[in-house]
Design brief:
single chain; alpha/beta; Rossmann fold; 2 domains; seven-stranded mixed sheet; three-stranded antiparallel sheet; about 20% strand; globular
């Protein structure tokens, strides 16, 4: 079917197969056979922006690899960047109530910085929530930490990373999970509809573009990894490979938080499951 401008509104099967092959090779996302309509809805605006007359033209342009921004935009619209502050609550409470007190004990003071990885951080709500928890712990300890805390936040999409680095959010974004007290304490409000994360929260975080399918050697070792609500987009083989690499990036006994609907699959042998009511964490064996 074509629209009024003479452009087809959906993929044929061959185009869809080529598109999902590109997406899996580029970032590991595995699209099911019934996702043509989803893809068509998300991609249509890019066809218009780049004056492409069909999905075949789009796939051809992506394979030519001459337009990096187009590739980034396709990946961006095809990765669901749904996120909000303190999502699921319990990982942040466990960090504040259990992990930070443990790391800051006197016998651990010479162990170097605490390192936390927020993988697939999207537009930044998760790493900023982590940093707020660290700041609240610091304030409760008379403004001092026995060890510095460093948060590394990564995402495949450079577009959402740009927003995360800016740390600026509109009214709709800041009401999703932020209490009025935290909003007042940790954000500046330079204009009527802009809230900007204060430096005391932002300066603890390093943002990096990173593909979970790539080597993790450049990231170093972590005390805890938040990798939540992203593994659902990978097939079982890639999911296991990513979890094995995350295990390799954790310090001995390090902690992994997954999304509430995610599990370890074939990597279960590498982790011990720990119940932290109401949720679950995984400790590296």
């Amino acid at each position: 079917m074509t629209n009024a401008a003479g452009k087809r509104d959906n993929f044929d099967q061959a185009e869809f197969d080529h598109f999902r092959q590109f997406l899996q090779e580029a970032c590991g996302i595995a699209l099911g056979d019934n996702k043509q309509y989803l893809v068509s809805n998300r991609i249509r605006r890019l066809l218009e922006e780049y004056k492409l007359s069909s999905f075949s033209d789009l796939v051809r342009a992506l394979k030519q690899n001459s337009n990096r921004r187009l590739k980034e935009q396709v990946i961006d619209v095809m990765t669901t960047n749904e996120t909000f502050w303190f999502r699921d609550t319990y990982p942040f409470e466990y960090l504040h109530n259990q992990l930070l007190p443990q790391w800051m004990q006197s016998e651990n003071r010479m162990a170097g910085p605490v390192r936390i990885w927020s993988a697939a951080c999207s537009s930044g709500q998760e790493p900023y929530s982590i940093s707020m928890m660290v700041e609240e712990f610091r304030r409760q300890r008379m403004g001092a930490l026995a060890r510095p805390v460093h948060v590394v936040a990564t995402d495949l999409s450079s577009l959402v990373l740009d927003q995360a680095r800016r740390g600026e959010y509109d009214r709709l974004s800041v009401v999703r999970g932020l209490s009025p007290e935290r909003l007042a304490r940790y954000f500046d409000n330079p204009t009527e509809n802009v809230w900007r994360v204060k430096p005391i929260i932002r300066d603890r975080i390093e943002f990096k573009a990173w593909n979970l399918l790539d080597s993790y050697a450049g990231l170093g070792k972590f005390d805890v990894v938040f990798c939540r609500n992203v593994l659902i987009y990978f097939n079982a083989e890639l999911k296991q490979r990513i979890l094995e690499k995350i295990h390799g990036s954790l310090k001995p006994g390090g902690v992994l938080f997954l999304g509430s609907s995610e599990g370890l699959g074939g990597a279960a042998r590498l982790f011990e499951m720990v119940r932290c009511e109401p949720g679950i964490l995984y400790r590296a064996r």
